[in-house]
Amino acid sequence: MGAHNVDKPALSVGYGEDVFKGAIADKYLKKEGLKLADLEDYSWINDASKPDKIAKAMLAWALDKGATSFCHWFQPMTSTFRHGDTGQVQMSMLEFNRDGTTTFELKGKHILFGETDGSSYPNGGMRATHTAGGYLAIDPSSPVFLRDDCMFIPACFVSYNGKALDEKTPLHRAHQAMSKQGARLFKHLGFEVTGMVNNIGLEQELFFIPREAYERRMDLQFTGRTVLGKMPARGQEGCDHYMAPINVVGPAMACMKEIQEQCYKLGIPLKTRHREVAPNQYEFAPEFGSVITQTDQNLVVMQICEEVASKHGLVALLQEKPFSGVNGSGKHNNWSISTLCGAQLLNPGDLTKRSGNPEIFPIVMSAIVAAVDEYGDLMRLAIASPGNDFRLGAMEAPPSVISTYLGTQMTAYLKDFMEGNVYEYKPATTPVDLGVDILPIVHAPAEDRNRTSPFPYGGHRFEFRAVGSSQNVSMVNTVLNAITAKYFATISERIEAGEKAVDVAQDLLKKHSKVIFNGNGYDPKWPDEADKLGITHIDSGVEAINKLVDPKNVAMFKEMGVFDEEECAARREILLEGYIGTIEMEVGCMIDMINQYAIPSAKAAGIDTSAMAEGVTKLKAGLAGIHAATDNFESAKLCRVLRLETMIEVRKIVDEVEAECPANLWSYATYKELLFLDSGKFK
C-alpha cells in the first residue's frame, strides 16, 4: 500500500487508490477538461465528445499506478469452479509504431466496446462455433479498477442477437424494471421520484484450511468439497469457534488482514471479519452499496480470498458444504430499496416523512409479500446451487420452504391495514434492563431475529439468508428485483383501471399473507403445514431449476424486459449442465479416492475391502445411468439421487474403514488435519 502514514493505521492508508472514482478520478478528468460529474452521469457513453477524454484520463491514472494493460471484465454464465467467476482478455496498452518506437494509447472505442468468442462459454445453445460472436459493452455504473498491471473495465456480455450471455446484463434489466415501475407506482401515490435503486450487503462465509492437507485431497482440489472423510472426535459441538478470538499469531489472521488491505485499495468497504460456527470457518461483510457494484465487488473479494490464502500456506474454500458433519457456508443477501432522492422504502418512518403519505409503506409491503408468494419458486431457483443440496433445511440454513418473516408488530400492523385501519406504522423498540446500575439500557429492535426464515424482514431491509456462499448473487437479485417490479406494475395497472391503491394493497395482502410465517422454520412439521397452505416448497434444486421455464415465470420475465423464452430455456440448460457436471466430478473423485487410496490403505492394514469395491461398482452403475438419460433434466434428477443416496451410502462404508485403519497407513488427509487450523490447542 506504499509508505505507511505515521499518523494513521496501515489499513486506512490508500483506501480506494486503485479504483477510478471520486477524488482520484476527478484529478485526472480535470486534466482533460472534464469533471467528476461527467463520469458519474452515465450518459457520457453516448456523448461523442467525452469517451476519448475519459479514456485518456484512465490511461494516465493507470500508467501512474504502473498498469500497462486493460481488459473488459465480464461475468459469463459459468460454474463455481472458474477462478474469480469472471472472464477477461488482457490487452497491452502499448502501441508499436512503424519507426520502431512505442507509445501508450487508450481511446474511447477501446473502453466502450469489445468482442470475444461467445460459443466457448456455457450458453444453453444460444451460440455455436459457426455463430460465435460475443460482444462486450462497458458498464458505466460500476467503477474501473486496477489489479497488478491491468486495468479492469466492468462490462456486459451479449450475443450477436442481443441475448444475455452473462449474469450482469439481466441484473441491469431487472434493476431498471424495478426502478421504472417503482417510480410509476409512486407517482400514483402522490410521491414523484425519478427512479429507485436496490442496495445490498453481502455476508461472505468461507473456510480456510492448511494447503499441505488440501494438496492431499483430490476431492477438495477438483470439487471444493470432501466426498469422503470421518468426523474427528471434536466438531462444532461446543460452539467454541463462533465469534471466538482469531489467533493473532496464526496464519488465518494474517491472511484476513491482507485480504482486507487489498480490498480497501479497491474501495471495497470490507468492514467485518469474524470466526463462524464451524472449525476453520470465517466471515467477511462489507457495508451496503448498490446492487451492481456490490455484486461486482463480491466477485473480486472471493478471488482475492483464494489468491491471498495461498500466500499464507492456506486454501480458501468457498463451496457451500466442504465438510460433512459441520456447518456449511452461505452468503446472506441483505436487500433494500431506496428512491434516487434517498427515501428508504423499507424504513416506514423515513418513507412516511419524505413522502407525507403513511399509506405508501403498507402498499410497498403488499407488493413484496405478494411477489414472494407468487414467485417463491423463482426465489428457490435463484439459490439452487449444487452445494445448497446439503444446507437447506439442515438446521444451518433456512428450509426449502420460501416464506417471509415480518415479526409480530409488522404482521399485526398489516392485519389492521387489511381490515381498513390505515395509520402510520411506528414500530416500538424494546428496552432491555441489564439489572446493573452502571450499565446502559439496551434498546432492542422492534422484532427479534428469526434465523430460520429464508427471507426475514430485519428492520429497513429483507435478508435472503439461503444464498450459497460460492454464488454470483446476480441471479438472486435479478429475481428479487424482477418480481418486485412485477407487483409494482400490477398495483399501478389496477390503479390506472380505476381501483384505489389502498384497496388493491388490502386485496393483495388478503390473498398472499399466507406466505408470512413468524414461527420456527426448522420445525419438522413446518414443511407439511406449508404444503397445506400452498406455499412454495421445493426440496430438490433440480426441480427448482426447472421452474425457470414455467409459463408464468417466462411471462413475468418477458413483461419486465429481463429474459425472453430463449434466454430462460438457455439458462435452465446451463444450470442443469452445471449440476450434472458437478456431480460427475464428485463421483469420479470418490471412485478414484477409493481405488487409489482407501482400498490400498485398508489392504495394508489387513482390513476387508470387498464392501468398498462393491460401492465403486454402484457408483459406476449410477454414472452409466446418468449418461444414458435422454435429456439434461432427467440426467440431473438421477444425479441428485446418486449424490444424496448412493454416494452417502458408499461414504459411510469408507469412513468406517478409515475409523478402523491405523492413522499412519491412511493415505489422504483426514478431517483432523483439515480442521482446527486456528486453535492453539491443535498447533
TrEMBL record:
Pfam families: Gln-synt_C (PF00120), Gln-synt_C-ter (PF18318), GSIII_N (PF12437)
Signal peptide: none
Domain GS catalytic, chain residue ranges per copy: 167-598
Gene3D superfamilies in the cross-refs: 1.20.120.1560, Glutamine synthetase/guanido kinase, catalytic domain
GO MF assignments: glutamine synthetase activity
InterPro entries, per database record: Gln-synt_C (IPR040577), Gln_synth/guanido_kin_cat_dom (IPR014746), Gln_synth_cat_dom (IPR008146), Gln_synth_gly_rich_site (IPR027303), GS_Type-3 (IPR052725), GSIII_N (IPR022147)
Family: Belongs to the glutamine synthetase family.
Protein name, entry field: GS catalytic domain-containing protein
Species for this entry: Micromonas pusilla (Picoplanktonic green alga)
